[in-house]
Amino acid sequence: MPSKRILFVSCAVGMGHVRAADALLAHLKSTHPEIETTHIDLMDFLAPLAKNFYFDSYNFMAKRVPKLWGTIYRATNNPKGAKHFNQLTKINKKIGAKKFFKFIEKYQPDYILSTHFTPADLIANHAHSYNITTNNGLLITDFAAHPLHLASDQTDYFVPTQSVKNQLVNFGANVKQVVVSGLPLNPAFYQTKSAQNLKNRYHLNDNKTLLFLAGGGGFTKIDRLLKNLFEQKLSYNIIAIAGKNKQLYNRLTRLIPPADMNFVLTEWTDAIDEFMRVADLIITKSGGLTIAECLYLQKPMLIIDPVPGQEEDNLKFLEDNHYGQKLKTATNCSIITENILTPQKIIYPPPLNANDAIINNILKNLA
After folding, report:
1. Separation between Cα atoms, residue 289 and residue 271, nearest integer Å
2. What percent of the chain stands above pLDDT 70?
3. Which residues lie closer than 8 Å to 331 by C-beta, 6 or more apart?
4. Which residues contact 216 (CB under 8 A, 6 or more apart)?
5. Residue 216 banded pLDDT, cuts 50, 70, 90
6. pLDDT band of 174, cuts 50, 70, 90
C-alpha cells in the first residue's frame, strides 16, 4: 500500500510562514516516518510577474512605506474589500501559478497545508482547473483573522487562539472547520534545556539579559536602540540577532559597548530557542511565530517597529492580554530598565504542543 503524502506550502514573505512549515515538517518526519512529506515555497513556483506583484511589492512596502501596506490591509479587512481584491487578482493568480499546480499534479499529495493565505487561496479556488481535489488546510500564523484567509473550498483552518476562531466564523467560516491548535514551533522549543548551561556556553554572567531580535528580514534598526542603551552604561548581558540583514550586522559590529557589559552579536541562527531561554526580556518584532515562541517560553516582550496591518494586530493581542507592550521610540530606553528591574507578573497561557495538535488533526482527515 503506497504511503500517504502531506505537502506543506509556505511563502517567504516574513520568515514566520517558512518556520511554521519547517516545524511541522520536522515534527511529522520524526513522529510518522512512514508518511512521505515535503515543504515547498510558493515563491519558487510563481511566474516572475506574479511574484513581483504579490511578494516583492509587499517586502518593499513593509520596509520602505509601511503606511501604504497598512492602508491596503485595512481596505481589504472586510468581506467587500477582500472580494474586490480577489476579483482584481484572480487572472494573475491563475496564470502565474501554473508551475505550482504542475508540481502538485506530479507529487499527488493526500493533504496540503498552507502557512500563508495565497497558496491556500490558489488551491481552494483554482485547483479544480487542474483536476486537483486534494483536501487542503490553512494555518493562520498571526493573532488576528482577515477576510483574505477565507476560501470556499477550504477543508480546515488552524488558528492560534479562540478569538481568531471567532473572527473567522464571523467572516463566514464553518465553525466545525476551525481548529484552535496554537502555532507550531521548531521541535527544539519542546526540549528541556538548562538555562545555566546555556549561559555558560554563551559566556553570560548572572546579570539580567536582554535579547534584541531584528526579525528574519532584519527590517528593524536595533542599532539606534542599542547605541542609546550603551550610553547609559548599564551592566546587562545583551544579545543582538541581526537576522539576514548584513548591513545591520555591520552597523552593530561598529558599536562599542561599555566595559562591564557582555555583548553577544550574531546574524541568522538556528539556536534561537537557546538565546530566548537565557533572556529576561525580549525586544523584538511582533511576528506571529516569534510571539508564540516567547509565550511558550514565558518571556516578556517589548515590541519595536510593528508593520501596520498584521503586526499591529499582533501587538494589540499582546497588549490586550498584558503579554507585552510597544517600545515607542528608539531613544526611550527607560521602559527597558523598568521592565528588567521591576518585571510585571504575567499570566501566560499553558504551554501546548501545537505541532501534535495540527498533525493529529490532519491525520484524522487521512484515516
Report:
1. 15
2. 93
3. 224, 228
4. 14, 15, 16, 18, 19, 243, 244, 268, 287
5. low
6. very high
